[in-house]
Amino acid sequence: MKIGLDIMGGDFAPKAAVLGAIEAYKALSADQKLVLIGDKEIAATILQENNMSPDHFEFVHTTEVIGMGEHPTKAIVQKPDSSISVGFQLLKEGQIQAFSSAGNTGAMLVGAMFSVKTIPGVIRPAMTTIVPKLKGGLGILLDVGANADCKPDVLVQFGVLGSLLAQSVYDIANPRVALMNIGEEEEKGNILSQATYPLMKETSLFNFVGNVEGRDLFSETADVYVCDGFTGNVILKLAESFYVITRKKQLKDEFFDRFNYEQYGGSPILGVNAPVVVGHGISSPEAIKNMILLSKNMIESKLVDKIKLAFQ
């Protein structure tokens, strides 16, 4: 198994990425190899400064970097030797089995769709995040930003994608899928919600449990919460602030500690032909480590194969 990591992506790259790779290396088995994609000389220096032999890793040297503020499509085309572009080329050629980066999210989405491409039958890939539950355990929220505008059939597919992720990677049996809305009743919501509800109610592709409201997100009501990417991104950013606020207020609480993005590593892009994970721009070494381990879990669980099977 070879897991590709963009070491040039993220606000604290390459140092945070390389330090995260060191921690991930300690958790991987001998037959699981990390491929570091980026400036080899800088990476080797950081490794040596931390008493880690560069021989433990494979390197693919690149000379360009896609910045956080760059236009995704233009950057992928105009910077073919960027760490993101090269990473996706390696993924497409099968030289790595998964690719992750804490770099430009748009470039990661565009790169995934240009290189390994969308799984046949999937209308739009989705990005997910983890939602901690009050009584322990977790839920999955999608989409969290890949698709600001969605149609009803796309939301139904998100239900399938989220359900398969919950089963395959997080071992949740028969996940309960809910539609994020402004009321529990079937007729509630905007035009999109009202059109989506009957489609979800009729489907046999997943275990639909109805509408949920924002206040239900951390309860035991459901395991997978489906919404458009605009709504999901608003929820995600709000939820991320809980951890920051509790720190600023010097409140120590086990539940709010679980809102720390570092624990979960990143957001998988579901619906493309290979495991791709996008990390937070401010990713620390701990977050990078967990992003790599999430990539490993996606490979081992054969999640992509299961999604392909569902959309045949």
From TrEMBL:
Q: Which pathway, per its entry?
A: Lipid metabolism; phospholipid metabolism
- Keywords for this protein: Acyltransferase, Cytoplasm, Lipid biosynthesis, Lipid metabolism, Phospholipid biosynthesis, Phospholipid metabolism, Transferase
Q: What does this protein do?
A: Catalyzes the reversible formation of acyl-phosphate (acyl-PO(4)) from acyl-[acyl-carrier-protein] (acyl-ACP). This enzyme utilizes acyl-ACP as fatty acyl donor, but not acyl-CoA.
Q: Which reaction does it catalyse?
A: a fatty acyl-[ACP] + phosphate = an acyl phosphate + holo-[ACP]
Where mainly found? Answer: cytoplasm
Report quaternary structure and partners.
Homodimer. Probably interacts with PlsY.
Q: Where is the signal peptide?
A: none
Q: Which PANTHER family match?
A: FATTY ACID/PHOSPHOLIPID SYNTHESIS PROTEIN PLSX (PTHR30100), PHOSPHATE ACYLTRANSFERASE (PTHR30100:SF1)
Which family does the entry's similarity section mention? Belongs to the PlsX family.
- Which NCBIfam families does the UniProt record give? plsX
Give the taxonomic lineage as stored in the record: Bacteria, Pseudomonadati, Bacteroidota, Sphingobacteriia, Sphingobacteriales
User: What is the protein's name according to its record?
Assistant: Phosphate acyltransferase
**InterPro entries, per this entry?**
FA_synthesis, Phospholipid_synth_PlsX-like
Enzyme Commission number(s) of this protein: 2.3.1.274
What compartments host this protein? Cytoplasm
Gene that encodes the chain: plsX
Q: Which GO terms describe its molecular function?
A: glycerol-3-phosphate O-acyltransferase activity
